Amino acid sequence: MSSRRDFFQDIYRYRACQFDRLVAREDRQGKLFAALHDIRPLAGLRVVEFGAGTGRVTRLLSVMVDQICAFDIEASMLKQAHSAMRASGMTNWRLALGDNGRMPVASRCADLVIEGWSFAHVVGWHPENWLRRTDMMLGEMERILKPGGVAILIETMGTGRRRPLAPSPKLAALYDYWERECGFSYRWIRTDFQFASPEEADELMRFFFGDDMADECLDGNTVIVPECTGIWWKRFDS
Description:
The model has no long low-confidence stretch (mean pLDDT about 95). The chain starts with a helix and ends with a strand. It is an alpha/beta fold. It contains 10 helices and 9 strands. β1 (about 45-50), α4 and β2 form a beta-alpha-beta unit. The strands form 2 sheets. A 7-stranded mixed beta sheet has the order 3-2-1-4-5-9-6. The protein has a two-stranded antiparallel sheet with strand order 7-8. α1 (about 1-15) crosses α2, α2 (about 15-25) crosses α9 and α9 (about 200-210) runs antiparallel to α10 (about 210-215). Helix content is about 45%, strand content about 25%.
């Protein structure tokens, strides 16, 4: 498990630009924004984002929300996000360092809290106490939300898949915990990757997903790779 953690930490710490190129190719039909807006209309909201990475979700939400404060534990990811947000022309955002379990914001300050492709690392990085750490992160979301606010979790339900299936038993256990024990609702969407060329598909798939996944998904001419994404959400009324 530690080697897998080191693999992702190396990417997030030293290869943020390449990572941003990959995530920019996902969701070619723009389904994520529509799904989020359907779950909780975004206009005028104050948002806190956990594990923002290079700002993929930050960019999506900034075009409609009133304010978004986005946090990540890796300075290199935030540096990439800062460049992207400045280029977007939006001014209603703030980026800062922050750990998912101890967010540096006041209680009851947000209408919406959200994470994308961040919380699920807990099962690989902390296999012995992932439940405790999950509760800590969800507890932070609840602390930050105003009464009536909504928490949204976004995670993979399968790369290279046309129908959703948790990529591992541990992720399946995490997702089941969110639904059965924590009361989150669930839906899924297709957020397929569309690469500029087969060569780019090969480079970026191998970079992040590894040779086995790339060999399974690519045939030398592939530019579109199926991806299923799960969205979990819960309204906190008190």
